[in-house]
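Field log, afternoon session.

UNIT: design team B
ACTIVITY: writing a sequence onto a fixed backbone
BACKBONE:
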């Protein structure tokens, strides 16, 4: 790799599911690397990666994957990132850039950073793009187009390493932003984690309904429920980790959400038509802002 450029000699992908597999396809399309090695734990996944042919080599050993890499991208469930960093730490070349894609940042930094040698540049990241599907088959090379990628480099991180990672995401079609890990976790708690929690909860409520009512909910789901079912079909393991690893920010935002829900409940009980209409008009405006920001 030429420092600051986006061409790498050897990229190691630790985890090549939806996110890692999509990035691998981008790296191929954009010719960002001379060689790509994918590490995957399970033989079945390695077999699929070979069939899909988005990496030059597929290995079952983290040390082999990273030993010659100038860029390592970790895309595994956030709870697994510490163990991955511990396994790769002793095998990283000085000057290697390590980045990740975890949906939670502070906990991932705390888990990974202690295992990375000081001559390695760690640039934590989170592409805010995804689907409810998982695994290498789910990936596609346009996943990141028009989506934000947030980088949360700790103070003192080498600026050239940060801009190298930023350039890679720009080549994937993303807009790139930078903020502290704590701020990222608070923003994502309300934009992503709480909406997922609501979906898990409302769909969970339906699973408890008596059989006849449940059938009717499914039959008439186009009334709104089906949109929640898409979100609630997201990977259980990934979301288990996100809620536990971002507990503080999620609980803070959930507190605010519960207060607002109670005030809506009160407005309905009191038949406060003006109050309800004012609230729904405000939310309509937010929808317009989302469309204007091309994030619909
Ligand atoms: P995914 O499709 O399930 O892929 C994750 C890969 O990690 C799997 O292929 C799996 O490989 C491997 N893995 C699972 N547990 C592991 C462990 N304990 N040790 C080592 N490897 C393990 O998940 P993903 O959606 O790509 O998510 C990857 C990361 O991106 C997560 O941190 C997630 O928070 C983040 N992210 C996800 C989204 C989204 O919408 N999905 C969006 C942005 C960021 P094997 O099959 O070989 O076990």
């Amino acid at each position: 790799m030429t420092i600051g450029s986006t061409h790498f000699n050897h990229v190691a992908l630790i985890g090549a599911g939806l996110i890692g597999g999509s990035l691998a396809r981008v790296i191929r399309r954009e010719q960002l690397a001379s060689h790509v090695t994918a590490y995957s734990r399970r033989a079945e996944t390695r077999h699929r990666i070979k069939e899909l042919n988005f990496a030059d080599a597929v290995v079952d050993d983290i040390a082999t994957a990273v030993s010659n890499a100038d860029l390592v991208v970790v895309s595994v469930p956030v709870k697994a990132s510490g163990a991955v960093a511990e396994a790769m730490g002793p095998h990283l070349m000085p000057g290697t850039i390590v980045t990740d894609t975890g949906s939670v940042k502070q906990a991932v930094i705390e888990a990974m950073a202690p295992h990375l040698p000081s001559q390695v540049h760690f640039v934590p990241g989170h592409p805010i793009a995804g689907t409810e599907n998982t695994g290498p088959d789910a990936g596609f090379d346009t996943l990141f187009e028009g989506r934000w990628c947030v980088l949360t480099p700790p103070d003192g991180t080498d600026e050239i390493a940060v801009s190298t990672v930023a350039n890679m995401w720009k080549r994937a079609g993303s807009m790139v932003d930078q903020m502290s890990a704590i701020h990222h976790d608070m923003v994502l708690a309300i934009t992503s984690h709480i909406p997922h929690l609501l979906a898990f909860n409302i769909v969970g409520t339906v699973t408890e309904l008596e059989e006849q009512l449940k059938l009717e909910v499914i039959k008439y789901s186009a009334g709104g429920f089906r949109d929640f079912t898409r979100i609630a079909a997201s990977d259980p393991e990934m979301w288990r980790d996100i809620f536990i690893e971002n507990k503080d920010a999620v609980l803070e935002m959930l507190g605010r959400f519960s207060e607002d829900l109670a005030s809506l409940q009160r407005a309905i009980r009191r038949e406060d038509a003006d109050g309800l209409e004012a609230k729904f008009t405000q939310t309509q405006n937010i929808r317009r802002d989302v469309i204007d920001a091309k994030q619909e």
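LOG NOTE: The mean pLDDT is 95.
NEXT ACTIVITY: expression trials, pending approval
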